[in-house]
UniProtKB/TrEMBL annotation:
Pfam families: TPR_19, YaiO
UniProt source species: Echinicola rosea
Annotated TPR repeat ranges: 68-101
Name of the molecule in the record: YaiO beta-barrel domain-containing protein
Taxonomy, superkingdom: Bacteria
Length: 417
């Protein structure tokens, strides 16, 4: 009897130990560090291995269903793949787990914007505003502006975006976005500019005046009519031009210019066009063509790349004039520092060669070399009045060893209505 009891105890002890070892073995196979696995899944997604990232993310939330960042990652990866409905399911899970987590709403709204589900985006935004009240995070406030933008309610979008800019909101591409909204909200205006060029006794000074009017005309976007009258080389003449900026979608627009003149120092006629793209990370790019008819026709190819970073806008432009001898290239580097809005900035510019878009320059003389520096300031004085002043100095080579200095003063003002 004693032996039987002892055997039973031994069997029970054996079963207990065996069960412990099995449980420990299974636990060792299924437990893991969720933070480490989340970082692995995120890296996979950023490396383009999105299906692997999704698979790993699902394994994480299977064991840790309250891990909101993983649900958000699953939502964003599915959104990148264009599976907007599936992404919405994951974002709903993230909000369910952490209803006061702004990143979940940010990702959800981005997904709905990409899927053009604007009514649903309005509902999600309303939920976020109810959750956060008057303390709506800047990221969500920015997306509120974006929703107005997608609905083509540009004035409302601009009011929110400018308020964020004035508060120095840390939002990538905010200045680029505000500048783009300005293009949509500028309705009508009239303005004038005056340029004075002194050549330090080499030739008589030039005086150039320009009057323009701007309005919006449907699909043509902003349309500008301009007349430029100038006194140069002991003669006077006037150039007439029309510019248009038709929209090509949410992230692209075109520039078209046509003009003619009765003056020998302006082109007999001119034509130009460019296409502009807004790119990720606050970059922008354009490529275009200019056609100038003097005594001979001049063809110019032009392209630029720009970048918004903080309060700065940096732009590098190159122009190429092809010819049988290989042609010539001119370059222009421009930097603007913006102050309280997209209309108030300090500008610094350095260039070599002559750009076809600089009408105060002597493009017809076919300068061998030209170097120019320019500084200026523009400010919106009131909601209706804007003014600017620029000072430039150029050093142009007319023939080998023969240089002509040029001091340029340019001022202008604009009234909006």
């Amino acid at each position: 009897m004693i032996n039987a009891t002892r055997d039973m105890k031994n069997n029970i002890l054996f079963l207990v130990v065996l069960t412990f070892l099995l449980v420990h073995h299974v636990s060792g196979q299924t437990s893991f560090d969720p933070d480490k696995k989340f970082l692995e899944a995120r890296d996979l997604a950023l490396e383009g291995k999105r299906e692997e990232a999704i698979s790993l993310g699902l394994k994480i939330v299977e064991q840790y269903p309250g891990y909101s960042d993983v649900w958000i990652l699953l939502g964003r990866v599915n959104a990148w793949e264009g599976r907007y409905d599936s992404a919405s399911v994951y974002f709903e899970k993230a909000i369910e787990q952490s209803p006061d987590y702004a990143d979940a709403y940010n990702g959800y709204l981005d997904n709905l914007f990409w899927g053009e589900q604007y009514e649903k985006a309005q509902e999600v935004l309303a939920r976020a505003e109810k959750q956060f009240g008057s303390n709506l995070p800047q990221g969500l406030t920015y997306r509120k502006s974006r929703l107005y933008y997608y609905r083509e309610e540009y004035e409302e979008a601009l009011d929110i975006a400018e308020n964020l800019y004035e508060k120095n909101a840390d939002i990538d591409g905010l200045l680029s976005y505000v500048t783009n909204l300005k293009r949509h909200t500028r309705n009508s205006a009239v303005g004038m500019t005056a340029d004075y060029d002194s050549f330090q006794g080499e030739i008589t000074p030039w005086n150039t005046y320009s009057l323009y009017a701007r309005t919006r005309l449907g699909f043509m976007g902003s349309v500008i009519a301009r007349a430029t009258h100038s006194y140069r080389f002991e003669a006077t003449g006037t150039q007439y031009e029309i510019d248009a900026y038709p929209s090509l979608g949410k992230n692209s627009y075109a520039y078209v210019n046509v003009g003619f003149s009765n003056a020998s120092f302006f082109p007999e006629y001119r034509f130009g066009t460019s296409i502009y793209w807004s790119l990720p990370k606050a970059f922008e790019f354009d490529i275009g063509y200019r056609h100038l008819k003097f005594s001979e026709i001049t063809h110019i190819l032009t392209a630029s790349v720009g970048k918004y970073t903080g309060n700065w806008w940096l732009n590098l432009r190159a122009n190429h004039v092809p010819s049988s001898s290989g042609g010539s290239i001119s370059g222009n580097l421009q930097a603007r520092y913006y102050f309280k809005g997209a209309e108030d900035y300090l500008m610094v510019q350095f260039s070599t060669g002559v750009s076809p878009d600089e009408e105060d320059r002597d493009f017809q003389s076919q300068l061998l070399d030209s170097y120019r520096g320019r500084v200026g300031y523009q400010q919106l004085w009131t909601p209706r009045w804007m003014g600017y002043a620029f000072l430039g100095y150029s050093y142009d080579e007319l023939s080998p060893g023969n240089y002509r200095p040029n001091l340029n003063i340019s001022i202008g003002t604009e009234f909006r209505f």
